Amino acid sequence: MSSLTLSTLTAWVRNSAVYRSIIRHGVADTNRNRSLVIFENLFLHVHPVKVREKTLKFTHTFWLGGITMVATFVLFATGILLMFYYHPSVPQAYRDMKELMFVVDNGVFYRNMHRWAAHLMVLGAMLHMLRVFYHRAYRPPRQFNWVVGVVLLLITLLLSYTGYLLPWDQLAFWGVSVGTNMAKEAPLIGKPLRFLLLGGNIVSENALLRFYVLHCVVLPAVLMLFISVHIWRIRKDGGVQGPPEKDPGEEVEP
Amino acid sequence: MPLRRLFAITSILFFVVLAISPLKNALRPYRSIQREYARLGAARAKSQKVAEAYQARPVSIQQIWLPGLQNRVDRCMTCHLGAQDETMAGAPGVYRLHSRSFHTPKDFDRFGCTSCHGGQGLATLEEDAHGMAENAGTPMTPLPFIESGCGRCHLGEQVNGAAILTRGRMLMEKAGCFACHLVKGHEGFRSEAPPLESVALKTGGEALKRWLKDPKGLDGNASMPNFRLSDQDIEALTHFIFNTAPSKALADKVREAGAEKAGDAINGKKIFAEARCISCHTVEGKGNGSAPELSKVASRATQPWMLAYLRDPHAFNPRTRMPQFGFSAADTRDVVAYMVAEFKDFDAPPGMLDPVHVNQTLAEKGQKLFRLLGCTACHAASGEPDRIGPELNRIGDKRAASLDFGKRKDLKHTLPTWLQAKLEDPRSLGTGLKMPVYGLSPTDTQAVVTALLAYGAEPVPAQYQPVPAVRASLVPGGTVGALFDRYRCLSCHQIGDKGGDISTAPLTAEGSKVKKDWVIDYLVMSYTIRPILTDRMPVFRMTKAEATILAEAFETFYLDPSIPEDPFAGQPATSRDPIEGRHIFDTLGCKACHILGEKGGYFGPPLNEAGRRLKPGWTYTWLKGPQKWRADVRCPNYGLTDADALKLTSFLQTQVQKPAALKTAKGGGR
Q1: Structure confidence at residue B527 (pLDDT)
Q2: Do B21 and A101 touch (CB under 8 A)?
């Protein structure tokens, strides 16, 4: 039996069924292999096989979409941790907040991360839209993705708003009281809409429960769906578009 | 490559930022406090085993969880570990044993820390837990007001061991706070202030104006606050008051009294002293101050009114605490003659008592003012008082952020400071405020703030409210009730949970306590029981028949089932041995406080007549535990055995000397 050396061990691992089922294409640095790696991986296939070098430049996109996406990930991670401690009920909600602040290990950190990441997500999404607007990236063939983006911004704002009630403090209570009263003023659907949102006519335990379900289940699920479509469309529409090409023929003054 | 270096630096920075939170967590101050506590405990421990137990303590958050008490979670013991630990008596700072209080440290497991002290029990950092940051969470109750915590569960007026709270509650009742402010449990409050209709009969325009200007300045015992009225307002109110017609019956009484000839002032002086008027009224500083100061009364009240009032005070003010004395017509004439001659303000200008010539316009203006200022809250003749103040039911849990500090920039934004300012100078907090100035001393202000802070937002569950130590009051009707009312027994004595606190002898178990014959003698001619007390029972000039009715009522109704009628029943004959009892009396040193024979102390009642006055059952029960009957009793609990208590009782029953005062007693005659 040959002696056990590092190279034989490596070869054994690489030939094992488990390894081959995960790393299917080896590490050979050929164009074909690179394409295969991207094509056959769920996480990587949203990326184009090849990107132009200039699209990687910071000033091309200011990384705004990416920053928003990272904030979203942080929000999911910290949000799940916060859910372990939070009861959406009137006697418990504010108290759980205090528990997080006072005794839960790193509770202050998770809560603040969640809060600041939420601010960052709203800010990032808005700046991202401005960037897209000023770069004229909403124009065909990206018109569909622009609309998806608008929906994503709305979901982001709704997530922010529904999360605002959950601490169940005075700020939350009055914030939601004022907000839903504004919704009430909408013509025709205003009153039923408010009733639907609050599960009643006042900001009470029903409102807290509804906002909790919206914040933690409904809106994140819809957000995930739309983010997937959004990113998939980027690839289908030929990658990100930065500043428009300098093409004198295209410049049309109104 | 600069991008790589940038990536490396930001990664390190990111890692450092992420490490801050777990580090802060690991370095929480309570951890070092707990380690220091273990070290201190081990050093103070009496045995090796206990010391090891201290050292083996894990560092962890400690809490008292009370699902039944508003789901309270108190983690105060995370730092204050020694609060319940006898070993830590006298230990420094945060480690020390809880200071002696009415409740023992074991009780804290039952109701936690924040139920008395306030603060945020959930927190584990000093700043959060003590609520030191302005407007953050619930701050701790400052120590001067700590007895407000007692009042959250102990809802009765008398709270043993909480003198400040008790005083505060008593002051609130006396000052008439509940007349303007609705408070649960005091909905039925009615002020003792006199109805307005007889004021014009009693006093004159100038005297009334002086009174309205500053009631407490004229009479230190006045319960009427200072409304800081302008001279125009005083003028208008005076005209309104003199425009209010008295009832014909009262006017007739005063007119008839005015027609009588003057009495004998020298005899009046004697009667004034005998009746012990200064048990309640003050004359030149003497007296307990529960009734008006009399030294200048003749310059405030007319002679006919005084005469008519002394004969039938309850006709003039049905809610007054003044008893009706059994004076004869000539006696009252003499007393009033003495008062008119002696109790005069010699500096007052003449014409103080002249009536006002009413101007209708001013009177109408005065009537409006009278309602606007809320005077009707106290001076309403009948019906619901007009409560113009806000209700105070939840005041103790009001957030400082929701209080209006108005013009006062000098105040710390906390609830106790606000309440203090509101009591000291109510109108300094804003313009247009109506609350008058009560002129409370700083200690009284502290007491009232304490009582106010006890009105919490959330009611304490029933199992945390103490079973009342005293039984509900039994106030009789019929003939007995009429006598109680006539002599206003409840102005001074307590029956169950009702009554004044001037007398140290509650009547709740009077029938089990004293012998009937003694009561009759005493009511007819009361004398000093405890020489050290200054407030004595007045001599009402009660008839023997009235005294007998009252004594029989005591025998029938005011009994305590826990006091045996005959404590010797079923006991060995030796327990009736008075000679051994005498021996116990001498050994315990009872003479330090009690007179027996010729000598003894003045603190307790003399015991020469103990056998004539007290029932054996009472004496026996008392000896077994004097504190059961009143919290402030100084008589020590010697922990006597049944046999010793009985022997002592049987000795005291042999002391049946009649006091000198009684030998000349004639009894009242009307």
Answers
A1: 84
A2: no
